[in-house]
Design goal:
- The protein has six helices and two strands.
- By secondary structure, the protein is mostly helical.
- It has a two-stranded antiparallel sheet.
- Helix 5 runs antiparallel to helix 6.
- The longest helix is centred in the C-terminal third of the chain and has 21 residues.
Length: 146
């Protein structure tokens, strides 16, 4: 069956042509607030974390796993915890931490051990300050819930 083209019931009214504006891409605005201020990022610290043995099995770590699922407000959809809240994990254990709640519950202990090793290794202020703040944060959360 052949179809005919749709016809308008009311004709288009001719108006003055639209003025052309130059394209300006949207600028990303950094959100400010308590969460964005605590997002510590440090590639040197992450490289150090990856050099440590896996926190779960003791094997060779390949990933720096950032803490998840503890209701601490550090991570969520589209956000990652600060680098000071990273721990070493091999690929298999990293996958298990993301899928097994029992392994997620062990993260505070693994994280405390990793941060203490980082404090022994680093001496420069931005890293040491962020790690000390992370230890205080973990202690406060663990005392509040335990």
């Amino acid at each position: 069956m052949k179809r005919t083209a749709l016809e308008r019931k009311t004709p288009l009214k001719a108006k003055a042509p639209m003025a052309r504006r130059a394209f300006t891409p949207k600028r990303r605005v950094k959100k400010t607030g308590p969460k964005s201020e605590q997002r510590f990022r440090c590639p040197a610290y992450l490289a150090f974390v990856r050099s440590l043995p896996c926190c779960a099995c003791g094997g060779r770590a390949t990933d720096a796993h950032h803490v998840i699922g503890l209701h601490w407000g550090l991570s969520g959809m589209g956000t990652t915890a600060p680098d000071s809240f990273a721990m070493p994990a091999c690929r298999e254990c990293h996958r298990d931490i993301h899928t097994r709640p029992g392994m997620q519950a062990r993260q505070p202990w693994w994280l405390t051990d990793t941060i203490n090793r980082g404090l022994d290794h680093f001496t420069d202020e931005p890293i040491v300050g962020a790690l000390a703040d992370a230890l205080e944060f973990i202690a406060a959360r663990e005392n509040a819930h335990g």
